[in-house]
Write a structure and sequence with these properties.
The complex is a heterodimer of chains A (323) and B (280).
Chain A: E1 2-11, E2 14-24, E3 28-33, H1 40-47, E4 55-60, H2 71-74, E5 75-78, H3 90-101, H4 105-115, H5 130-142, E6 148-152, H6 160-175, E7 179-184, H7 187-193, E8 196-201, E9 204-210, H8 211-216, E10 222-226, H9 230-239, E11 243-246, E12 262-266, H10 270-279, E13 286-290, H11 293-301, H12 315-321
Parallel strand pairs in A: 3-7, 3-8, 5-6, 6-7
Antiparallel strand pairs in A: 1-2, 1-4, 8-9, 10-12, 10-13, 11-12
Helix pairs in contact in A: 3-4, 4-5
Chain B: H1 21-33, H2 36-62, H3 69-78, H4 80-110, H5 112-119, H6 123-157, H7 170-195, H8 198-216, H9 221-230, H10 232-237, H11 253-277
Helix pairs in contact in B: 1-6, 2-4, 2-6, 3-4, 4-5, 4-6, 4-7, 4-8, 6-7, 7-8, 7-11
The chains are: A alpha/beta (323), B mainly alpha (280).
């Protein structure tokens, strides 16, 4: 269990973490969500004792990181920032970590097998692709078989296979009763990975609750509408005060998404759209209320975005919607 | 909280057995041997030191009766061991300044410091282990190199000046030179830990070792001699001379080495304080 109490950190004038408090429970994947610059990485560094807080505390199973008897056997961490010497082999990187903890050499081979890097273990880490580098980071995090895992943006830059691998790994580790805190600025990724969400913006807690609840609380819901008479319906909806965007958020496995017959409507609920269509005798093939985590997230963090609030769509939304 | 959690698959680490210093030493040894810069810098150190010792002593022998022979002959004859060691080490020590700095700064430039401190959050333990391993490595390599240099140089010089380990202060000078180089490595490592950036730290280390003595030479007479005598390189290299009583020396061989160790200790203390205090 990770407990963060009233944590505050300032870099010069900039308040990076602002009286932040939350608890990460074992047995589930907790998503740590926020736009870029919200203070996610800083909070993780504070929990891990790499940076010192201005005030407040962060404890792991009741102890400060600094006081853990065998740190890597209690906490495993994957940091977003590089933390591997490019000239050192993957095996030697893991070996020097294992030696600090008195772990046997065989454990290094075990984690290399676990992340699928056995064949390249003697290659210099600098020759690794982004995905292999992430796997090496995960191997280091799992080295001491820790109860608590902190993963900072683990899917960044990974191919779909790598994303799926990390997602399943996190779920499996959580099901074993471990405490998993995983940060991301990708809402859609969190929606399928995390059971529970801690959302921060500008270093402050915005909300924490189960992923389903965060989605359900999203007030600005949109509705997916599929109709052969898109043009006429668009006109009627607009007259009724709704907003229509052609196409729509693709659903997994939906090959025909973004077709000409698909509309995304906001500002009117599904019932009202159905009535409008019925009164004009327009055939509907689909009428689905959609609330994505992404929308919930944008709504929650609007006004707390560190970058991109002037004019253009926020960076985080753009990246999120490409997924 | 506890109600929702199934029994952890990972048993809590048994009865808090703390990290052991021996493990930290093996870890630092793995780190230092597994990067190429260590081997390359040490090879460069060996080649430069032995090479220049051979070159300078050979040139001296070859020009024994040359135009400037008289003054030089006096110097070589009064302190042959100082001459032999000074020839190669003067330049060779530069590589150790670089290696010492790199041992610390690459932790920062590559981000490995984060991995290191996650594994060993007690930062001064990590620093102590690093110092111990680096000092042990340097001591072995440097003693071999200085003895090698001495035997090579004395063999070349033999036809004109005979010098052996049994001569007065000679063994102390040779052994002491190895000690000086080892402490110089730690001295540079401390500078690396304080400055954290390779270029800045290398410049500073080399500036302190090579440039400060030149600057202090520009000070007025008595001032210059005293300031100069206490500078790290000036004080430290006294131990490599059999008769460090030449003009301008204000310290004896061991006093000089003590002053140099004090320099290194103060810088290491500053590096330790900053490591403990700063964000990683």
């Amino acid at each position: 269990m990770i407990e963060v109490r009233d944590l505050t950190k300032r870099y010069g004038e900039k308040l990076a973490v602002d009286h932040l408090s939350f608890t990460v429970e074992p047995g589930r994947v907790t998503g740590f969500l926020g736009p870029n610059g919200a203070g996610k990485s800083t909070t993780m560094r504070l929990i891990l004792g790499l940076d010192y807080p201005e005030s407040g505390t962060a404890t792991i199973n009741g102890q400060r990181y600094h006081d853990l008897a065998r740190p890597l056997s209690t906490v495993g961490a994957l940091l977003e920032a590089k933390s591997v010497h490019p000239g050192r082999s993957a095996r030697n990187h893991l070996l020097f970590l294992a030696q600090t903890q008195g772990l046997p050499r065989t454990r290094v081979d075990e984690v290399l097998d676990l992340v699928g890097l056995r064949d390249v273990a003697n290659q210099r880490a600098g020759s690794f692709s982004l995905g292999m580098g992430q796997r090496l980071g995960i191997a280091a995090a799992l080295l001491g078989n820790p109860e608590v895992l902190l993963l900072d943006e683990p899917v960044n830059g990974l191919d779909p296979e790598g994303v799926l691998w990390i997602r399943n790994l996190m779920k499996q580790l959580a099901s074993e009763g471990r405490t998993i805190l995983v940060s991301s600025h990708l809402m859609n990724e969190m929606a399928v990975t995390a059971d529970y969400l801690i959302v921060i913006g500008r270093g402050k807690l915005i909300t924490e609750s189960s992923t389903d609840e965060v989605i359900a609380r999203s007030t600005d819901k949109s509705v997916r509408v599929r109709t052969p008479d898109a043009a006429r319906l668009t006109k009627l909806i607009t007259e009724a005060g709704g907003k229509v965007a052609p196409g729509g958020a693709p659903r997994p496995g939906d090959a025909t998404a973004n077709g000409a017959d698909l509309l995304t409507v906001t500002g009117l609920d599904a019932a009202r759209i159905g009535e409008i269509a019925a009164s004009a005798s327009i055939v509907l093939h689909e009428l689905t209320p959609v609330a994505s985590l992404e929308e919930a997230f944008l709504e929650l963090t609007s006004g707390s975005l560190e970058f991109g609030q002037h004019g253009h769509a926020p960076v985080t939304a753009a990246e999120g919607s490409t997924r | 909280m506890t109600t929702t959690a199934p029994a952890p698959a990972v048993p809590a680490p048994a009865a808090a057995s703390h990290l052991r210093f021996g493990g930290l030493l093996s870890s630092e040894w793995t780190k230092i041997r597994s990067v190429r810069s260590t081997a390359w810098t040490l090879i460069l150190f060996i080649v430069i030191t032995i090479g220049f010792t051979a070159l300078f002593t050979w040139l001296t022998v070859a020009n024994w009766n040359g135009p400037h022979a008289a003054a030089r002959d006096v110097r070589v004859a009064t302190d042959p061991v100082g001459f032999i060691l000074g020839a190669g080490l003067g330049l060779g020590q530069l590589t150790l300044c670089v290696l010492g700095v790199l041992v610390m700064t690459t932790e920062y430039s590559t981000g490995v410091i984060r991995s290191s401190l996650l594994a060993v959050p007690r930062r001064l333990w990590m620093l102590s282990a690093k110092c111990t391993v680096f000092a042990a490595l340097l001591l072995v390599v440097c003693e071999i190199v200085v003895f090698g240099s001495f035997f090579l140089g004395s063999a070349i010089l033999h036809s004109h000046v005979a010098v052996s380990l049994s001569d007065h202060n000679v063994t102390r000078a040779v052994l002491g030179s190895g000690l000086y180089l080892t402490v110089l490595g730690l001295f540079s490592m401390a500078i690396g830990g304080i400055i954290r950036h390779t270029a800045g730290a290398v410049t500073t280390a080399i500036g302190v070792v090579f440039v400060l003595p030149i600057l202090s030479g520009l000070l007025p007479n008595s001032w210059g001699a005293h300031v100069n005598g206490y500078l790290p390189e000036q004080a430290g290299t006294l131990i490599g001379q059999a008769h460090p009583t030449g003009s301008g020396n204000v310290l004896s061989a061991w006093e000089g080495f003590g002053v140099f160790c004090l320099w290194a200790a103060v810088l290491l203390a500053i590096a330790a304080y900053l490591l403990q205090k700063r964000d990683a």
